[in-house]
Every structure is written in structure tokens, then in C-alpha cells.
Write a structure and sequence with these properties.
The chain has ten helices and 17 strands. By secondary structure, it is α+β, with helices and mostly antiparallel strands. The protein is globular, with a radius of gyration of 20 Å. The N and C termini lie far apart (about 40 Å). The structure holds adenosine-5'-triphosphate and magnesium ion.
Length: about 325
């Protein structure tokens, strides 16, 4: 397991922002800055996705975590490889520990969320709705008598419409999404089928390693040949919740929160200092950033089953070098 001191050594080398000049890329490549990833569109239909070290929660960028970009990018690439036989994806190659070269697609404007457990604390979460008496969530009828963090009878799809920059996503049923006309029935149903197949495979692999895949979010796009494929990232701690299976049952019996390794750590710290998602963001102290990264690395190791060996080169210099082959 990577030592906290090794992570701390990477603190001065976090990658916050990129641009054409710092990456040495042609100025003509359109840049889309997401909350976590900087996306450059090549003229030939490829998309360069640089996973920075930014961390987002509450739909806001909260700062950076050392090594986070390479942990996420490598973990996601690993999952794409593990799931390519059940769902075609956008990966072309992994030119750098924190960059992915992908097929540029037309993204479907819905996030496909799959949930196997009833949990969450935010106003839009399934547990919040259930605990206030709702028994239908995104078109799914939920049985009475569930308690927080219980397993659902089967994994359910709870899609949400993708909000524009800065907005909050809104959950909806299949019927509501189709009625809104943002996506065709054929595309939606294909994406739903792939989402369930990905989730089954993900849950199976996590289970073998002693983890529960609790819930996750997928994005899909239509590639130039018209096929619906998985884009973005798959089964990372940013897009998914994982609980430790070994202690789940006993903790659940005592109504204690499951052991998890996900963004909850940073969310909990922010909540502990009174932050609720609005107003100025408290600066994350270095010890919190290091511990958060340690959890990302632990997630990588627990899932992949191999030690996470960080690349400690200065990220911009390394990216420039590794990406130089993409342009003349
Ligand atoms: N292969 C692909 N083709 C087209 N778009 C993609 C592809 N893979 C990912 N994307 C999009 O690129 C962006 C990735 O960046 P990131 O995840 O940081 O953004 P985000 O902040 O989640 O997104 P947004 O600001 O759009 O809500 C997302 O908008 C995602 O939908
Ligand atoms: Mg995203």
C-alpha cells in the first residue's frame, strides 16, 4: 500500500488546470473544461481526455488531490478493459497515466445511474425520497420496510437529465425522459441495457475482491457509426459508491454506516466544518487531501488487486512528452 509520505511528496505536483500552451497542443483543438477532466477534440474524430487532480462534490470543484488524476484514469481504463466484452466503449489508448485517447461521440444528455442499495443523504438521493414516504422512485415501485443502506430487491436504473455547466442533475423515470424528447427510445433502451450489463459485471468483480458496488453513474454516446457506446469513466470512486463487504451485514444489523472508500470522506470533512454545498468553499487542509488520496489509491488496489505505483514525474512535462505523438 502506498505510504502517506509518498502521497504527500506529490502535493506540490498536483495538476489543477491545463491548456494548449502548457500541454504543447495545437491551438485549433477545441477545449472543453469539465469539472474534473480537460477535453481536447482532435480534428480526426478523436478526443483527448486529461484527468486533472481536481476533485468535485456538490457539483462544484473543491480543490485538488495529489495523484488523483492518475489513479482515476488508470482505474477507469482498467474497468473499460474488464467490461469491453459486455459493453463497447470509447477507449482508443492510454497515452499517459492521466490521459485517455477516446472516440469522440455525441453524448446522450442523460446520466444512467444504477443503484443496488437504498442510500444517500442529499436532497435528490433515493434514501431521502424513501424516508419521506415516497414509494415510487424514477418509476420503480419500492417495497415497504426498507431501512437506510438496505439492498434493493434488484438493481434499478434511475436516470437523470444532464444539467448544463453548474446546474444540478434531476432524476426522472424512463417515461419522463422519453416524454421530454431529449433522447430517442432506441438510444435510451440500448444505453439502459448496457448500463445493467456493466453493473452486473462490475458488481461481480467487486464481490470477488470483497467489495460491494453500491451505485454508479454511466454516460453513453453515439459513435460515428451510430452505435451506442460507453463514454466518460467507469466504476471509479468519483462515479460510484463502494462498501466493504466483510463488515456490511454486521454494521447494517447495528444500523451503523457501512465502511466505504469514496468521495464521502471529503464530503464528510466539508460537512463537519459546516459546508453544505453553497457559498465559499473551505480550503482542504493538506492532511485531508493526503488522506483522501490514500483512499483513492486504496480503492484502486482493492479493485485491481495490484499495488498502485505512482508516476511521480512533473505531470505537465510528462503529458507534453507523452502527447507529442498526437500532433506533428
Ligand atoms: N468519448 C466522448 N465523447 C464525447 N464526450 C465525452 C466523451 N467522454 C466523455 N465526454 C464528456 O466529457 C466531459 C468529461 O469531463 P468531466 O467529467 O470533468 O465533466 P463534468 O464536469 O462531469 O461534465 P459537465 O461539466 O459537462 O457536466 C463530460 O461532459 C462527458 O460527458
Ligand atoms: Mg463527469
Amino acid at each position: 500500500m502506498i505510504a502517506a509520505s509518498e502521497i504527500a511528496a506529490a502535493l506540490p505536483k498536483t495538476l489543477d488546470t491545463t491548456d494548449h500552451a502548457t500541454l504543447g497542443l495545437p491551438r485549433g483543438w477545441p477545449l472543453y473544461e469539465g469539472k474534473v477532466r480537460d477535453n481536447y477534440s482532435l480534428p480526426d474524430g478523436r478526443r483527448l481526455i486529461v484527468t486533472t487532480d481536481r476533485i468535485s462534490a456538490f457539483d462544484r470543484v473543491l480543490g485538488t488531490l495529489p495523484l488523483k488524476g492518475q489513479i482515476l484514469n488508470r482505474l477507469s481504463a482498467w474497468w473499460f478493459e474488464q467490461t469491453r466484452d459486455v459493453a463497447p466503449n470509447h477507449v482508443i489508448s492510454v497515452p499517459d497515466p492521466q490521459a485517455l485517447l477516446a472516440k469522440e461521440c455525441k453524448p446522450l444528455p442523460v446520466e444512467m445511474v444504477v443503484r443496488a442499495y437504498i442510500t444517500g443523504v442529499t436532497s435528490t438521493s433515493i434514501w431521502t425520497a424513501y424516508s419521506t414516504g415516497e414509494r415510487v422512485f424514477c418509476g420503480h415501485r419500492l417495497p415497504d420496510g426498507l431501512k437506510k443502506n438496505d439492498r434493493l430487491p434488484e438493481p434499478i436504473l434511475t436516470p437523470s437529465t444532464k444539467a448544463e455547466h453548474g446546474g444540478h442533475d434531476q432524476s426522472a423515470s424512463r417515461a419522463e425522459i422519453l416524454a421530454s424528447g431529449v433522447v430517442s427510445e432506441a438510444h435510451f433502451d440500448r444505453a439502459a441495457e448496457l448500463a445493467h450489463a456493466l453493473f452486473r459485471r462490475g458488481a461481480e468483480i467487486c464481490e470477488k475482491r470483497g467489495w460491494i458496488l453500491v451505485d454508479t453513474k454511466y454516460e453513453f454516446g453515439v459513435d460515428p457509426s451510430g452505435e451506442v457506446i460507453v463514454i466518460d469513466e467507469v466504476h471509479t470512486p468519483d462515479s460510484s459508491r463502494f462498501w466493504f463487504a466483510g463488515t456490511y451485514a454486521e454494521r447494517q444489523a447495528r444500523s451503523e454506516e457501512p465502511e466505504s472508500f469514496d468521495k464521502e470522506y471529503v464530503r464528510r470533512w466539508l460537512t463537519s466544518v459546516g459546508f453544505k454545498g453553497d457559498g465559499p468553499i473551505p480550503a482542504l487542509p493538506d492532511d485531508v487531501r493526503v488522506e483522501a488520496s490514500r483512499r483513492y489509491a486504496a480503492a484502486y488496489e482493492a479493485i485491481v488487486g495490484e499495488a498502485f505505483v505512482p508516476d511521480l514525474d512533473a505531470p505537465l512535462v510528462r503529458l507534453q512528452r507523452n502527447l507529442s505523438a498526437l500532433h506533428g
